[in-house]
Amino acid sequence: MSFLVHSLRNVRIVAKEVPQIRYFSQLRPQTTSKLARPSFQASPIFQRLSRSFLTDASPVISRPTGQDAWIRYGTTALAVGGSVVAIQMFLNRETRDELSAAERSLLNESFQYTGAGLALTAIGARSLFKSGFAFRLMATNPWVVLGVSLVGSIGTMMGVLYTPPENTVQKHLFWLGFNACQAATLSPLFFVSPAILSRAALYTCGVVGSLSYVGATARNDKYLYMGGPLLAGVTVVALSSLAPMALPLGMRGLQFAEAISLYGGLAVFGGFVLFDTQKILHHARLAAQGSMVADPLRESVSLELDMINIFIRLVQILGMRNNSKK
């Protein structure tokens, strides 16, 4: 109220002197001083609560300089490179000979289908998010969403896995349906900040690239024994993800289940990358011997699921770290 009264008083003072002014340069010093510095004094409460461009508040967001950005990029590149070297030295002390032509061909085709599937999934998820599908999905009963997504994903995945490679059209249709189901399930991720999504995607590429390189250069069948333990681990991770929806857990129980789902799942699906890479090479050797038919589309589904699960957990971890800084 006092702010309004003092403002009206200043307006009256200026209005009295306006008839005597013909040019802006003829403004008297006392009038300009009144215009520049109002005669009222804001209350301390108003000064504390007001935040605008006219206050002396520090900026909320500071944009890093070009030098700081390059330092961050260099640090990230060194961290990724160091991680690759450390993983190679720790997990792959005994390397194998050079890959055969059949192994190299099946491995390259599998990763090409994996990249194409991830690109289709990302484009489809973005399109569904823009169309408002993600809002309707978030408002639906979670059990209904879980059931429909499981039925759609597992059904189309089984179609990809068990359709013979000779039936190219049907197999690719099942593959497109599988990627469409993944896109519908992942569309709510675009509610997250794009900076977090891009960082999680970069870290996922680094993790999967380094682990697949270790699996491809390790001696034959070194990590194929991990199938049973990894299956048990993914069962525990899945149960820990579903436990908060079905069991009345306390705060500590929820934190423990979340930690198992996030960090345990990250370790389990990282192990699956090693296992699936060596499984592709093993299938390539069997195909070269005539024991089976090479099927890169089938091999790509496992790698795609590994990358999606690693990406989701990295998004959650980065989001939690970002919230803790606020």
From TrEMBL:
GO cellular component: mitochondrial inner membrane
InterPro entries xref list: Bax_inhibitor_1-related
Keyword S-adenosyl-L-methionine listed: no
Transmembrane regions: 70-91, 111-129, 141-162, 196-216, 223-247, 253-275
Subcellular location: Membrane
Keywords: Membrane, Transmembrane, Transmembrane helix
Membrane topology: Multi-pass membrane protein
Main localization, broad class: membrane
Entry similarity comment: Belongs to the BI1 family.
Name assigned to this protein: Bax inhibitor family protein
Lineage of the organism: Eukaryota, Fungi, Dikarya, Basidiomycota, Agaricomycotina
